[in-house]
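Q: Got a minute? One more chain.
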Amino acid sequence: MRCQVDGNFRLDLDAVFHHMESAQTLSIFFPLLRRALVIDMRHGPQEGPLVRVMPMARSAADRLRSLKRLRPHMPRATEIVAIPWAGYVGNVISSGVWERLTKRLAAEGDEKTVAAANTALEELMRIERHELALLIKGEQYETMWARKK
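A: Always. Here it is, folded:
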């Protein structure tokens, strides 16, 4: 079992790679950003695989319902693999997860699908930079312990 470590964050990369290669629907969610990278590998004559950044869902059932609304021409997805990613967005790349994902997207879709994935990754990185800036400035965040004066 290979584990990626980012601070105190541990993840079984072998399991993640397995799901990347086999699951039809995936959600890599970033709790600190309150966003998820949603991937639906299913495709048909009218549409290819879907890759999109979305707000985090409350449950797997909610995410499956949102996929049905987004893709009414596709049959209802019956399961989704949810992968929590508590580390930095850049670690998706350094861990090898991004390379595996884009290889599968290229095999299942086309250049537009891979381009959509890269656009989604850039969006997640932009959101992360914004959240870090808010943290540094002290906006939208409060300290748990104040220094005694």
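A: The two ends are 48 Å apart (CA to CA).
Q: Perfect, thanks.
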